[in-house]
Amino acid sequence: MMTSNPKNQFLLGAGFDVLHQESREWLEAIAFWKDETKFFHKLVYGIEPLEKDKQEKREILKDLEDIHSRLYDNFEQAIIRHESFLAKILEDKKGYADSAYQTKHLDLKSRFEKLEKEFREWKSIVFKYIESIS
Questions:
Q1: Containing domain of residue 121, as a range?
Q2: CA gap 86, 20 in Å, rounded
Q3: pLDDT at site 13
Q4: For residues 65 and 37, what is the distance between their CA atoms, to the nearest angstrom?
């Protein structure tokens, strides 16, 4: 799958060290998102909304938090598997191809970018909610 994004074109030709570093950065970002999610949880549930509609919004935020938590965990495991695949390539294990790794890396990169965008949108919703009950 070829893409017109120049950064993705670079990554297709990049060495494993560059791809590995990007995977590590994704894992660090996920860890940060998890920490922020815990902080927002405390913030959202530290204030009891008086109006019924605000209570309902808080429950929706909780559902979104749970969904994101599962997405973070799932994506984190996908990256760990991806890194394991790289280790097998570097060990020159039979059946592990460089091109398959690079293709998977681009897929993970796309997933990461979507998840990052969704996280920013979720944060914006949380901020607006907190402002509405303060």
A1: 6-133
A2: 8
A3: 54
A4: 7
